[in-house]
């Protein structure tokens, strides 16, 4: 408050009495009276009555009593006046620290108490200022007692303000540690010992758990450079998995520089390995450019001059990683100017200060004015620096209110009437004032429309673990708008939706004000045995909704009364998504969060969803979808992730792509920058024609347990090496069931399944977690190593079709009567070898030595009922043939995962539980391709991949030489790759078309944006026409399996023998066809056929 009254100085006698106090007790009484007098007259009296000036004079006096009085006076001012006095006393800290070396112990002890009292007033945000002040005194003083005191106070700051204070100190470790390390080498052992203790305490603030166990040896290497080799050795045995941030780099970089300059080749080798491991976890290029650049010279020196080739190779790898992390780039970000930011914050604070604290400008009455008192000007300057820190850290939410009180409110309250309540109200007013300024600064023209209907308008940041996804960006949602969120896989699209759902977005309105409902691709309920209507009625959030209302809503999305009575577990993926949408509609959401809503939906269902969304005028939708046609039809705005910011583009996806051409991959398959690479399929014994059937089912009928109606009825189909098959049909028609029967995941009750004994099938199921849900704690590399480390696929023998039934186990106990009448029992199949056009198997007999093993023909084993035993060994052997030739080393598996688009660092260091849906799908694809399969089956693979990745998969499939079978509602994807269509409906299969891959589907001009419903009309040339003729694989030309009758060749004309010139011409035509195939791709031409006339 302003000073009270008169020209006399009633505090003068109190100050004089303090200076003449005979002992510490009397000085304490006088100091308390002085402090109460200042509190009564106001803080301005500290300057007006020369209180601070006199105490400063006492502190530098030649009289020990006056020096003690000064220290005691400062302590009493802190005790009586509280935090409001801090800005005025900060300049006195250097004087008080200098008294640590006073010859009078009473003075030194009083000074220590005064310093502790002053520093205790500081908020966490002021810790860096205090630390900088202590380091300044540490470097400038010549008294060892003062150095020890500064180091002790620096260590005390670590626990002074809890976790927030530790984080503040960790952020400036790079500036503190060099001076503390210098103090370790002080000639005074007291200083050296205290410096070691302080460094240890400071390093305890490191946010990296991988480094904390090594703090002691890191400090020892600072103190004694001879211990560097030992420290490097310990760190080289450490697995770094946590993101490496500036505090950790501040500790590591000096050590690594010493290791790179060490003469020992072993130390150099270990150091470059550590450099590579650490650099892989530096995810911010700006941080890499700032901190890692000093390592480049040392690594280059070893790369070019090391004696051992192995060390040079490690250095080359480390150098490549350094460059990839950004160590070779120049830091483009301007250094932060805190003084300028503080001055700007002060100018913004002046207009909202109480009028009694501001003098209006005589020249500009509308201007900000000036502080009414010089001492208040210092207080405002100090608070403005803290406010600048709050603004920089985006501390604008309601939870940040205490920060504004301790950084601003408490300092202003000492100068105005009102006390605590006034300080809190002013702090809240300032927070809202600066929030409004930030919102205006981050707004865009497109986001300002419809402000009167804005549901949400906030500034926030978003992180996943240690990874920052969005930084200080604006989220503004208008009622009735439909926002499509576009970004690459792993950018955090689904994380943003879940953060909104869980109320973790800063300043997002609570659920009772704005109801935000999430719709994902998997049901959230756990009871899958209840009926559909009971499942919805059991939802606690729908307790007040009648069953009749629930029934009507289910009818609206296609659930008739019969289907409502079915269990939740019996629904296909598409119907499960419809059920989630129906439940979301019953919630009556204000904001609908749709995460891949079209996954598993057929064309009709997607069209229905589009119409429903277009009809919602009061519901705001946030949509994450990889279906470009769907987004184009429903969105009113696109939200794009750009440099950790949300950027708004009004209009549809097409309009967005016109403005941002680099985002074309969201729209067309061809415009992708991602390149996937599938391994070459292995050869199959006895298969010399690409049209011969290698997987075939005939007259198969399959009914799920507990159901009366079959899912498949009398289905016959086949696949050859040249097959490119798209399986389409409505939800629940039996598409996935057909694939399960084909791949051996399900056993048909009727019909037969033929599979080439050496065939390997790579199967990517509809739900990616089907493959990896038991291994989420593993990294992608660890999962593939676990699955294939034995030289075969461990999951092959887990198929239900390969598990022996009790009846089949009884067969193993039956005696086998040999040709000589000897009776034996089969123990296990040991081996397999070729026998004419089939195989024979090595049988180990129970109770007999291996020398009595015998070879039994395949047909005989099948006739005796050992079909599943033979199939088990065939699966194992075919898996060995594919996976056994591949090394499961870390580098080999990492390279394989990178070839399917997964970042190598994510594959090596991130657990699969933390991966996005698209990243998990890439892991599953990589695992399916590891053993070089001849057939790849992709069940709804496009549901989880972004447009870039879908384009990469499409190009890889087009260039692959094996067979491909695709289930997808994405007709653009199917029509571009599959000239053969299997239409499944009501359990029946209708086959259509057979031709080469349509090359035009990959041209930019042909990739017209369209919805799923219109995709076939937009690309009539790539939809194969229906055909009643069988495909080559089922026409009888694929070769005759052993045991079948041979087709009659009576009446076929005898071929005429070709002349030498005709043979030359024929060979030239073959060569030209092969050359054309290598250039353009497509199915490999048959070397035996010659369509050209001879």
Q: State the low-pLDDT regions, or none.
A: 1-7, 444-451, 995-1052
Distance between the termini: 109 Å
State the major sheet: 6 strands, mixed
Range of helix content: 40-55%
Question: In what range is the share of β-strand residues?
Answer: 5-15%
Number of helices: 46
- Calculate the mean pLDDT score and round it: 80
* Structural Rg: 38 Å
Strand order in the largest sheet: 6-7-8-5-9-10
Structural class: alpha/beta
Q: Any idea what the shape is?
A: elongated
Task: Please characterize this protein's 3D structure.
This protein is α/β, with parallel strands linked by helices and 1094 residues long. The chain has 46 helices and 24 strands. It has a six-stranded mixed beta sheet with strand order 6-7-8-5-9-10, with helices on both faces. Strands 15-21-22-13-23-24 form a six-stranded mixed beta sheet, with helices on both faces. Strands 12-11-14 form a three-stranded antiparallel beta sheet. The longest helix has 24 residues, at 419-442.
Tags for this model:
single chain; 1094 residues; alpha/beta; 6-stranded mixed sheet; 46% helix; 13% strand; disordered N terminus
């Amino acid at each position: 408050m302003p000073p009270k009254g008169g020209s006399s100085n009633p505090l003068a006698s109190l100050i004089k009495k303090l200076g003449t106090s005979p002992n510490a007790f009397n000085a304490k009484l006088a100091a308390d009276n002085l402090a109460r007098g200042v509190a009564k007259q106001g803080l301005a009296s500290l300057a007006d009555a020369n209180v601070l000036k006199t105490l400063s004079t006492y502190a530098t006096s030649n009289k020990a009593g006056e020096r003690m009085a000064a220290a005691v006076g400062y302590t009493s001012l802190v005790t009586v006046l509280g935090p409001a006095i801090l800005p005025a006393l900060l300049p006195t800290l250097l004087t008080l620290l200098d008294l640590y070396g006073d010859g009078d112990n009473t003075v030194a002890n009083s000074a220590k108490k005064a310093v502790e009292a002053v520093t205790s007033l500081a908020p966490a945000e002021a810790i860096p200022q205090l630390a900088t002040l202590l380091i300044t005194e540490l470097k400038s003083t010549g008294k060892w007692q003062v150095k020890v005191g500064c180091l002790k106070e620096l260590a005390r700051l670590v626990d002074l303000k809890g976790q927030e204070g530790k984080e503040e100190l960790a952020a400036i470790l790079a500036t503190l540690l060099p001076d503390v390390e210098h103090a370790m080498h002080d000639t005074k052992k007291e200083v050296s010992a205290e410096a070691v203790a302080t460094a240890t305490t400071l390093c305890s603030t490191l946010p990296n758990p991988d480094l904390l166990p090594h703090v002691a040896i890191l400090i020892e290497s600072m103190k004694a450079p001879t211990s560097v080799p030992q420290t490097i050795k310990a760190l080289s045995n450490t697995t770094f998995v946590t993101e490496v941030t500036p505090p950790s780099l501040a500790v590591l970089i000096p050590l690594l520089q010493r290791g790179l300059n060490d003469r020992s080749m072993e130390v150099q080798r270990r150091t470059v390995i550590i450099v590579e491991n650490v650099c892989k976890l530096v995810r911010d290029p700006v941080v890499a450019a700032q901190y890692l650049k000093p390592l480049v010279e040392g690594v280059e020196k070893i790369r070019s001059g090391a004696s051992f080739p192995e060390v040079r190779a490690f250095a080359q790898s480390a150098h490549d990683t350094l460059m990839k992390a950004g160590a070779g780039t120049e830091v483009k970000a301007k250094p932060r100017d805190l003084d300028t930011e503080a001055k700007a914050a002060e100018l913004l604070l002046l207009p909202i200060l109480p009028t009694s604290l501001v003098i209006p400008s005589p020249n500009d009455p509308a201007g900000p004015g000036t502080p009414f008192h010089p001492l208040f000007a210092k207080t405002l300057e100090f608070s403005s620096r803290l406010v600048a820190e709050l603004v920089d850290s985006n501390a604008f939410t309601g939870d940040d209110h205490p920060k504004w009180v301790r950084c601003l409110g408490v300092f202003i309250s000492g100068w105005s009437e009102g006390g605590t309540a006034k300080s809190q109200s002013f702090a809240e007013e300032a927070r809202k004032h600066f929030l409004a300024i930030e919102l205006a600064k981050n707004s865009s023209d497109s986001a300002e429309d419809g402000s009167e209907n804005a549901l949400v308008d906030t500034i926030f940041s978003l992180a996943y673990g240690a990874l920052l996804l969005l930084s200080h960006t604006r989220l503004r949602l208008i009622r009735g708008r439909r926002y499509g969120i576009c970004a690459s896989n792993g950018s955090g699209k689904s994380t943003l939706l879940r953060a909104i759902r869980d109320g973790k977005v800063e300043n997002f309105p609570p659920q009772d004000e704005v109801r935000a409902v999430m719709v994902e691709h998997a049901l959230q309920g756990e009871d899958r045995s209840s009926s559909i209507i009971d499942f919805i009625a059991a939802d606690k959030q729908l307790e007040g909704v009648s069953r009749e209302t629930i029934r009507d809503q289910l009818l609206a999305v296609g659930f008739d009364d019969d289907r409502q009575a079915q269990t939740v577990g019996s629904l296909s993926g598409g119907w499960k998504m419809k059920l989630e949408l129906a439940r979301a509609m019953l919630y009556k959401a204000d904001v609908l969060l749709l995460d891949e809503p079209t996954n598993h939906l057929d064309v009709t269902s997607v069209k229905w969803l589009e119409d429903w969304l277009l009809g919602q005028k009061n519901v705001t939708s946030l949509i994450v979808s990889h279906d470009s046609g769907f987004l184009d039809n429903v969105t009113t705005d696109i939200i794009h992730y750009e440099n950790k910011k949300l950027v708004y583009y009004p209009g549809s996806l097409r309009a967005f792509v016109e403005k941002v051409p680099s985002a074309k991959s969201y729209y067309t398959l061809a415009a992708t920058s991602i390149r996937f690479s599938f391994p070459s399929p292995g050869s199959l014994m006895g298969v010399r024609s690409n049209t011969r059937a290698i997987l075939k089912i005939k007259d198969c009928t399959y009914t799920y347990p507990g159901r009366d109606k079959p899912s498949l009825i009398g289905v016959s189909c086949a696949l050859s090496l040249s097959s490119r098959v798209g399986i389409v049909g409505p939800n629940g028609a039996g598409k996935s069931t057909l694939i399960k029967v084909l791949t051996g995941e399900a056993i048909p009750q009727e019909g037969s399944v033929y599979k080439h004994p050496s065939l390997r099938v790579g199967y990517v199921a509809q739900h990616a977690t089907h493959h990896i849900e038991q291994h989420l704690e593993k990294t992608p590399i660890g999962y593939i190593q676990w699955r294939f480390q034995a030289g075969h696929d461990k999951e092959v023998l887990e198929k239900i079709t390969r598990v022996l039934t009790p009846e089949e186990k009884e067969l193993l106990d039956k005696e086998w009567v040999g040709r000589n009448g000897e009776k034996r029992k089969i123990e296990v199949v040991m081996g397999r070898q070729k026998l004419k056009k089939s195989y024979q198997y090595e049988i180990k007999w129970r109770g007999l030595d291996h020398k009595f093993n015998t070879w039994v023909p395949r047909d005989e084993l099948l006739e005796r009922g050992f079909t599943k035993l033979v199939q088990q060994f065939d699966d194992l052997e075919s898996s060995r043939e594919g996976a056994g030739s591949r090394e499961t080393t870390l580098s080999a598996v990492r390279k394989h995962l990178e070839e399917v688009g997964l970042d190598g660092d994510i594959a090596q260091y991130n657990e699969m539980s933390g991966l996005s849906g698209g990243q998990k799908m890439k892991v599953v694809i990589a695992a399916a391709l590891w053993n070089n399969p001849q057939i790849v089956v992709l069940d709804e693979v496009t549901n989880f991949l972004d447009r870039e990745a879908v384009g990469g998969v499409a190009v890889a499939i087009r260039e692959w030489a094996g067979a491909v079978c695709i289930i997808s509602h994405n007709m653009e994807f199917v029509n571009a790759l599959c000239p053969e269509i299997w239409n499944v409906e009501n359990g029946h299969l209708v086959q259509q078309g057979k031709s080469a891959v349509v090359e035009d589907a990959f041209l930019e001009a042909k990739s017209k944006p369209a919805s799923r419903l219109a995709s076939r009309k937009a690309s009539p040339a790539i939809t194969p026409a229906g055909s009643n003729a069988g495909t080559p694989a089922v026409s009888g030309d694929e070769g005759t399996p052993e045991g079948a009758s041979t087709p009659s060749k009576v009446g076929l004309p005898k071929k005429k023998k070709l002349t030498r010139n005709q043979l030359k011409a024929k060979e030239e035509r073959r060569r030209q066809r092969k050359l054309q195939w290598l250039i353009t791709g497509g199915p490999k031409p048959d070397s035996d056929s010659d369509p050209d006339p001879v």
